[in-house]
Amino acid sequence: MTAIFKDKELLCRLYSVKKPASYLPLELNLRAPRFSEREVRIVLTYPDLYEVGSSHIGGKILYHVINNLTDFALMHRAYLPRPDMQSFMKREGIPLYTIEEQRPVKDYDLWGLSFSSELTYTNALKALELAGLRIKREEREGFPIVFAGGPCVYNPVPLSPFIDLFAIGDGEEVIVQLAELMRRIKREGGSKEDFLLEARKITGVWIPAFGKYPVKKAVFTGIGLKDYYPTSPPVPVVETAQDRIAVEAARGCLRGCRFCQAGYIYRPYRERDEKLVEKLVEETFKNTGYEEASLSALSISDHSRFNVLVPEIMGLCYSEMISLSLPSMRVKGFNPELASQIMQVKKTGFTLAPEAGSDRLRRIINKDLTNEDLFKAVEGLFERGWNRLKLYFMIGLPFELQEDIDALVDMLWTVHKIGRKYKGRKHLAAGISIFVPKPFTPFQWEAFAKEDEVKEKVSYIKRRAPKAFVLRFHDYRQSFIEAILTRGDESVADLIEAAYMEGCQLDGWDEYFNWEGWLRAFEKSGVDIENVSGRKELDEELPWDFIEGVVTKKFLLRELEKARREAWTPDCRIVGCHACGSCTPQQIRELKEHPIPEKIEFKVPPRPKREFPLKRKVALIFEKRGYAKYLSLLDLNRAFTRTFRRFGVPLRYSQGFNPHPKINVLLGLPVGVEGLGEIVEVELSEKEFDFERFIEESKSFLPEGLRFKRYYELGLKETLLSKIEEVTYRIRPFEEFSLDFLEEKVLENRKGKEVLLEEWIKGWEFDGEVLRVVLNVKGGNILNIQDILFWMGLDLGTAEVIREELLQGE
User: Fold this and answer.
1) Residue 667, by phi and psi: left (phi above 0), alpha (psi -120 to 50) or beta?
2) Which residue from 253, 150, 170, 260 is spatially nearest to 217, judged by alpha carbons?
3) Hey, which of 287, 417, 433, 708 has its CA 20 to 30 A from 383?
4) Is there a contact between 440 and 447 (Cβ–Cβ < 8 Å)?
5) Which SUPFAM superfamilies match (predicted)?
6) 251: which strand partners?
């Protein structure tokens, strides 16, 4: 046990919060350096829940760079807890701590916050509070230095009163330079002020304490270097977003969609060659056992070697039962036959992003797509048996007319009619968001749409769209807050602080969104809403104008004028440089080495359907103790599946569109109960595999408290469940309790159902501290131990419960 939860009673009380496993070091492959092993200690926080933040690719890259490419610095992670956990921490006197060592964040030297959404700004202030730090930088003394990065900080001004240092641009080299500087300052006995004075010299760094001065964004040119990408990250076992292998195949995009901030701030365009991408996917699988992989890029089908890359990756995916997703395929030139080839392992739904309903509006936003392109792609998908389709649109775009909304509705009807031509029920959905003008885009001067206009359009679409479509509209209020924060000036910092003081946090989650708090914050802060959200004058100074090296204002103004004229700006790899200002002459020349494929056209060799005959069956005995008692049955299945795949266990898979391994945990434990000898039965498709070696080698991969102990060979149709006639629990109460229930014959359980006690309770004994109760197993079922606790007046938060080995005497 580590510092905070070494006390068993405290660990038990953690049962009272939702998803306790997300607050404990329960990841596979968790091998970060220990706090005592490195001179410089850094914390990285994606200011949101663990389920979202743990999947952030940028964070994984920086985590790898510091922990594996330096020998003097370490990086640990912390996330924002849910409100119930925040209350628990306050009651117990626990500050915000890191996942790796349960150590308070304020013990570290540097604390980085990564912002990908403006709706996480108040989360960051809450995190500072939970860590025991002042939220205003001027009121904080000493270390840790609080720094921030990510796409949102291309306008760092609204956050400037709270953050000591901003790292603008790519972080791979900047994070190492900051760590090296911290090492020098610590050795010299320097102060926070000494650190900031020197940090100002690093490319991409802005120090708000020194006012506005020209800051050139950092650009990482080592994309093609294998060492700079993580292939052995920690692997979550609780359910998280984007929980898969994610390999960045390219960074940047030159398509120039005029609404898309990422397409401008991540320039210049850089890509990894297909051999390196394949190697990264393969190594990551071998180190993690993930079941899915995705190739990350703003437009993956623009990769110059796309037609070679995909077949090579598919060969690996087929052999290792990995499902592949390509989340950013362009619709234009899309070949549905290729999609069917990609989905050889697992067939899921398909997503297309027309963004707007009319060709006219797509010319305005520079989206290279026509209705004909989209309908051709849809027809091809339905023709090949795809039944799930989702479309993405935006409303409230600049220069949008009613005819564009009509065209959106017409597009939905056309897709619906195409689907009716083919057999099978179609699952159709449309996600419709509200355009938010962003810094460093041609639309950065445009106004955010008025609420009444958006409501009218939403109502119109709902009334006229086909009922077969499930429509999901983004909440206008959340988009409004985003629009205020993304283009805000110094005055918007007062709004952020006021919203935080009103209890606003986790506003990207519907269940926590606090609109009333934001309304009070608008009133208290006195922010000029009309000025911040309205149209900007083309010659006025914008808050982010001091950031250099992105794209020039001159270029953006040209693009805005072309939008007014409905004029295209093709990818500069097609027609040559557009003088956007983001590339050096050398980078412009290098673009010729990465031409866009003329056609999306490749051939994945046909492969026979995978067969998984049952050749062997084993039962593995495992223990689930300490932290691991908070792993649910689904978490265990996820952990075991990835562990088996990581070590090459020849699993047997089910058939169908969504194959899954044949793994079965017997008599699964409730969350919060420890097990000394649990059983998981595994069906194998090959006879040969060394489980003795596996049990030993898997110890360093599994999280603390989860270990395999031994294994048994089974007959192909045999199950150990038939040998388990009784199970024994040990209950150690931490509060007052009663054993009167043992004198009863019939009681109602937690759900109000009558239970005949003598049928389920075989025996018991109490030694004054621990109740030992033996339960019968009947038809593969047992009495839920939580009912015993219920009758005692306890729950899993007020008693330590341990189940003894299921196979007694074996």
Assistant:
1) left
2) 170
3) 433
4) no
5) Radical SAM enzymes
6) 270
Q: Which residue has the tokens 């403006």?
A: 118
Q: Which residues pair with 433 in a beta bridge?
A: 394
Per-residue confidence (pLDDT) for residue 386, from 0 to 100: 82
Where are the strands (E) in 38-155, listed by range? 40-46, 73-79, 110-114, 145-149
Above 50 in pLDDT, residue 179? Answer: yes
Q: CA–CA separation, 243 vs 323, rounded Å?
A: 12
Q: Quick one: how far is CA 271 from the chain centroid?
A: 23
pLDDT recorded at residue 346:
59
Helix (H) or strand (E) holding 264: helix 262-265
Place of tokens 């699993």: 651
Distance of CA 231 to the CA centre of its chain: 17
Judge residue 186's burial from the number of C-beta atoms within 10 Å of its C-beta, 0-12 exposed, 13-18 middle, 19 or more buried.
Answer: middle
State pLDDT tens for residues 263-316. Answer: 999 999 999 999 999 999 999 999 999 999 999 999 888 999 998 898 889 889
Residue 346: DSSP 8-state: -
| Stated pTM of the model | 0.95
Please work out, in degrees rounded to the nearest 5, the angle formed at the alpha carbon of residue 250 by the alpha carbons of 245 and 254. Answer: 140
- Whether residue 136 has pLDDT greater than 50: yes
**Helix (H, G, I), strand (E, B), or coil: what is residue 209?**
helix
Q: Contact, 645 vs 307, CB < 8 A?
A: no
CB 773 within 8 A of CB 729: yes
- Whether the per-residue pLDDT at 328 is higher than 80: the answer is no
Mean confidence (pLDDT) of the chain: 94
Rounded CA separation 254/344 (Å): 31
Yes or no: say if 439 and 492 are a contact pair by the CB < 8 Å rule.
no
The token duo for 136 is 């205003």
Please tell me what DSSP assigns to residue 285.
H
- Cα–Cα distance for residue pair 621/676, rounded to 1 Å: 9
